[in-house]
Specification:
The protein is 30% helix and 17% strand. It contains 9 helices and 13 strands.
């Protein structure tokens, strides 16, 4: 199949949510047409930027409630996920049996019932903001992640983890904040905040040049991590993930995120968020997270 064509506006018109599962946890994130080697096509998903690695991925299942936002924070589409996996099947090779659907030039796993397939795909490839409430019965249920939930309970949730699980989570979370590729290029979530390498290292607690050198070695020595494991650093990473989710949701322009971080803030006694984030104290990170949350309304827009 070919790549996606130019996209027009997605269309609404789905029924409103009616399942009434008020107790379901709302997950805010970005629509993701997820695919990689082995998926054999797009898996319609929502990505939660407040969680690391594959924990951030929520593949949609029948019965999930989904609300997709437009550019102003209003509702573009709202309904219950019902994926039709049999209509419009195509052969994967010339002359073959029709076995799979395609949308926008990509093989996919299902099309939303009652909605134009192109319009459905456009929302995902545009990575629109969305709110997901997962159905009560899921094929692949997930355990609650320690980074999810109230920030003031994060320390206790992490302390309750078995040591091996905490160390595994530490490594997963750390990768997201500084990873070197074999080409020598580096990647960090902090780049979406306008941070360079120096600010990123300070954000993580200023690892030594030797620690950075080992972390940048490719292939990396077995078991190596940028910084030694500690629960306080794991807590710091959890708070940073929470801040990342708020900033990406509420300030979608990278320049706006960079400006907010560098501007003095009355909720921080006149300091800038950047001052506290790079100051080394975990309570500074917590205060910035609280300031970001207080500065956004329920829709995630900046006040």
């Amino acid at each position: 199949m070919t790549g996606p064509p130019s996209r027009g506006p997605a269309r609404s018109g789905a029924p409103k949510l009616t399942t009434g599962q008020q107790e379901a946890v709302e997950i805010r994130g970005f629509l993701d047409p997820f695919y990689e080697t082995g998926t054999e096509g797009v898996v319609w998903s929502l990505e939660d930027p407040g969680l690391p690695a594959y924990h951030s991925l929520h593949p949609l299942e029948d019965g999930d409630e989904l609300r997709v936002l437009d550019d102003t924070g209003g509702t573009l589409w709202e309904g219950v996920v019902r994926l039709d996996r049999t209509t419009g099947l195509l052969p994967r090779s010339p002359g073959g049996e029709p076995v799979q659907q395609a949308v926008m030039g990509f093989w996919v796993h299902g099309q939303q019932q009652g909605m134009d397939a192109q319009a459905w795909g456009e929302m995902f490839f545009a990575r629109r903001r969305a709110i997901l409430r997962e159905g009560a019965t899921r094929r692949f249920p997930k355990e609650p992640h320690p980074f999810s939930g109230a920030a003031d309970g994060l320390r206790a949730r992490l302390a309750a983890l078995p040591q091996a699980r905490a160390q595994e989570l530490f490594k997963e979370a750390l990768y997201s904040w500084l990873l070197f590729h074999s080409s020598g290029e580096w990647h960090s979530l902090a780049q979406a905040w306008g941070f360079g390498m120096g600010e990123t290292l300070a954000l993580l607690g200023q690892p030594t040049p030797e620690q950075v050198k080992v972390w940048a070695t490719y292939p990396r020595p077995g078991g190596a991590t940028l910084l030694p494991f500690s629960l306080p650093l794991l807590e710091r990473l959890g708070l940073l993930f929470g801040l990342n989710a708020l900033l990406l949701w509420g300030l979608r322009d990278p320049r706006s995120r960079a400006a907010w971080l560098r501007t003095t803030n009355a909720r921080l006694d006149g300091s800038s968020p950047l001052d506290l984030l790079l100051g080394g104290e975990i309570e500074g990170v917590r205060r910035v997270l609280e300031a970001a949350r207080a500065g956004m309304d329920d829709g995630g827009e900046r006040r």
